[in-house]
Write a structure and sequence with these properties.
With 331 residues, this protein is an alpha/beta fold. It folds into two domains: 2-231, Zn peptidases (Aminopeptidase, 3-Layer(aba) Sandwich); 248-330, no CATH class. It has 13 helices and 15 strands. It has helices spanning 15-19, 23-33, 88-103, 121-131, 164-171, 185-192, 215-231, 260-265, 270-273, 282-291, 297-307, 311-320, 323-330; strands at 2-4, 39-41, 45-48, 54-59, 72-73, 79-81, 109-113, 144-150, 155-157, 176-178, 196-200, 203-204, 212-214, 248-251, 254-257. The strands form three sheets. The chain has a nine-stranded mixed sheet with strand order 1-2-3-7-4-8-11-9-10, sandwiched between helices. A hairpin with a 5-residue loop joins strand 5 and strand 6. Helix 3 (88-103) crosses helix 7 and helix 10 (282-291) crosses helix 12. The longest helix has 17 residues, at 215-231.
Amino acid sequence: MMKWNKRRYCNMNTIEDFVRPTQAELFSKIPSEIKGKKAIVNGKYILVYGEAPVMLLAHLDTVHKEPVKTICKSGDGNIIMSPQGIGGDDRCGVYAIITAYRKSTVKPWLLFTCDEECGGKGADAFATDYINGHLPKKLDRIKFLVEIDRKGNKDAVYYDLDNPEFEAFIEQYGFETDYGSYSDICDVAPALGVAAVNLSSGYYQAHTQHEYINRKELEHTTQKVIEIVADSLKDDVPQFEYIEEVKYRYSKLGYRYYYDQCKLDIGITEEEDNEVPDDVPAKYALAYEDLLYVYKKSELEEVRQIYGNEVLVELYEDAYGPFDEAITEVS
């Protein structure tokens, strides 16, 4: 590991500035974006020291093979996308946590990870270093974690966490509980022993070439995160404990975390949540069923109506691996 202090400020300000670099280029730019704050570079993650008892997380990689060269915008400039794939997952998160850091009077801790999209390698390296005592003891004072790595505009995803008090704390900022398969907090939160949430950041149709970013929704989440950081300093905000909920079911292709009781609480039955529309061809039905563990049915229907049933294969392969192998496995 190595430490750095003050370096030149590169003046990355807009979301466009954050979607263009490769992961390696962005990794090298982060030091100058923090304006001299003490940090630790592991090679697989960057940890920036903070004073507020909250850590913000985002990952530096995207699934797209080409760097962004061309950015297309809507007439009002609010929606942006790219023929190369805009990479809102998770450049929106990187933009959001750096912006929240700059605008916070008392600075939060920041964790930037590498290779989340190929196995959460950066998060795993951080968790291992923390467990082995290689990271600052001051991390023990952190009250909770906030990751910015979620599609949409108001989702709050907790994965295996079962802490109703923390969910209520996050809900007061306008977010609503939803469900997901994996993000870095799945590794980091249990290691630190504190509650964590993954918040929406205004990107849509992730892991496809049709991915786009809603700039207003990204800015809205960023402002809410600034408020959360400020509120973390209040004496009546506790350190929220990581309490794991072990509820899962098996699908045909392996287990996916599935919050049965939570879904029943909000009035969604298992049958409704896993219903495959009749007009989905049989060869795509298995992909559709398993994608319901990652996407809402309304989202799948939206992209299917625009791009056809073939898009289900693309979404499936980004989430679970080769589709042909899955068909062979259950045939």
